[in-house]
Amino acid sequence: MTATTDTFADAVGGLGDTEWDRLADGRFYSSALWLRVCALDPGAVSGGLHVQTPGGGRAAIPVAAVTDEPNPALRWHDLLTARGLPAPEPGGLLIGQRRGYLAHLLTGEGTDRVEAAAAVLGAVRALRSPVHGDEKIARVAMYLTTGDVKAMRAAGARTAPVALKTDAWIEIPPGGFPAWLESLSAHRARRIRSEIRKFEKAGYELEHRTLAESWQDVARLLARSLLRYGRTVDVAPMAESFRMQGELAGPRAQVVQCSRPGEPPVGFCMYYRRGETVYLRALGLDHDRLASAAEYFNLTYYMAARLPGVRWVHAGTETAQGKALRGARLRPLWLLDLSEDSPLAGYDEEIRAHNHALLARLRDSSPAISGALEYELWEPYC
Questions:
Q1: 98, 134, 302, 325: which has the highest count of C-beta atoms within 10 A?
Q2: Mean pLDDT over residues 294-303, rounded?
Q3: Is the whole model's pTM more than 0.90, yes or no?
């Protein structure tokens, strides 16, 4: 195995965006653009680990040297201790990207995936952090798919994976929005049509703009949404973050705004599109000015499903019920500690019990969620 020596030279390890994207192969949250967006966030040094395998193949994975991670969804120590499981110390190497909650093992065409996983695993364990010196640190992969967990385990990762969240995907048939409605149950299709009629009756108009054109409205509306849920944020730094993201992404970062004629926007949805897939990124609503006309669903899933040529809408984690009711499939995402001396080693039985309990809670929470779970992706570790 030959590993890169400049993993932390930039967000893609000095490989170059075009070459990195060949390995990413359409996986947006592992793309060079998205990794450069992630690198704008404070609290870590972002990089890209890329290796050659003994068989002459190529493999890569995003990494980040984390010191003070502000995002609770990436604090592996807190997440594991809250589940009653042993936990690596905070800080160390995050294997995966810092936004998007969907990490992938990337391989070149024709590269054996287990061989690629073994090369990446060895390189991860040998990798030195640019911010931790010689201290002992954790090396934790987060939000991996079941397939990549299987490859890593087959390659020598000894700990059992811990189920973190559901990942929602909505498939849009070749006939587009009308075909999608026809693919749903009659009850669900009636609900969607009713929500669309309410939205139209409220007099809302949708306008598509780039993030570079609308970052100020995006920051304002997101702050209003967060306030509704008890989170007060300083709008200025958040607006600056969106401004920088819009400048970096250009027309690839799209925003659809919702407003009544002659009035400021009351909501937005930001998204990226990669090929036939739309990745929903952020939503903000001024709840005090809404008309109770299903603004959330019309701005997100119904908007995305209407875009020409879209075959998949990636709806991400959280709010599994609402997504399942609109035809989403729910796949598991996993935490896998890749440290050689992981504190999770030897706790396979306890981890499996946790995973089984999570799956059971989801299955029993509602008929919609039960029908949306892709059980074959959960069961190997439940």
A1: 98
A2: 96
A3: yes
